[in-house]
Write a structure and sequence with these properties.
It is a single chain. Helix 4 packs parallel to helix 5 and helix 5 packs across helix 6 (125-133). The protein has 13 helices and eight strands. It is elongated, with a radius of gyration of 24 Å. The model has no long low-confidence stretch (mean pLDDT 97). The protein is of the alpha/beta class. It has an eight-stranded parallel β-barrel, surrounded by six helices. The protein binds 3-methyl-2-oxobutanoic acid. 3-methyl-2-oxobutanoic acid (KIV) is lined by residues 26, 45, 47-49, 87, 184, 186, 207, 217, 219.
Amino acid sequence: MSDKKKHSIHTIQKMKGSGEKVAWLTAYDYPTASFAEAAGMDMLLVGDSLGMCVYGYDGTVPVTMDQCIVHCEAVRRGAPNTFILGDMPFMSYQVSDEDAVRNAGRFLKEAGVDAIKLEGGQRIVSRIKALLDAGIVVCGHIGLTPQSSGQLGGHKAQGRTIASARALIEDALAIEAAGAQMLLLEAVPPEVSAFIAQKLSIPVFGIGAGPDTDGQLIIVADIIGQFQAFTPKFVKKYCNVAQVVTDAMKAYVDEVKGGAFPQDEHCYHMLKDEIGAFPDLKKEFEA
Ligand code: KIV
């Protein structure tokens, strides 16, 4: 376990004041979470993107609360000293404020996360207020909201027209006024996100929203080259895990078939004072 000091919502909010950028990454499993904590990540999101990155679904809509909880538990074990957000999956909050509180509460009670994130602007204001009344730290998420990508006409950047930029700014103001402690902008023009980040007093983070937000979120499977289906424009690949792992697996296949693996160093031999009796044991069974 690292001796890193864990953030609270207050230390994250202070970073906006000091101008220190927040580094935020998704994680879905124990090893990745432990690597992120060792790397000094400020926050982790157990995103519903796990539907695509871990389960191979086409989108995030099929993801269930139970799946999110299991992955949050693993990430919490891997990163005990990191601020973790659970992502409310589709239909965990769309129907009622009561559903939203009950399901968000599961993230805290069962998986020990520090905050939750949910998609939507003005239309989820009552959900945000209900969550805050329950004592839950809330991060809003507007712009490209994958759970409603059907309504948006696909996974498209938002805020590229004046009308769409106005709607985003109004949503951002409504989320802050409702009391959310953080906001995420996804796939938004940098000029619009810079304005929103400067206008709001809560931290405003971006994924595909340019450099002038209070911090960046990115999907781990994208930046390490693990997710193969497609790569959004805003992704920078820092390594190519798919290539490294496939090469290692090919080498294993070759060595097993060619007899190069395992070697003596990979074997557990019989104890020295026992092996002398082994020929007799074999004879018993050969008879
Ligand atoms: O699920 C997720 O990882 C997300 C990001 C794409 C913002 O919500």
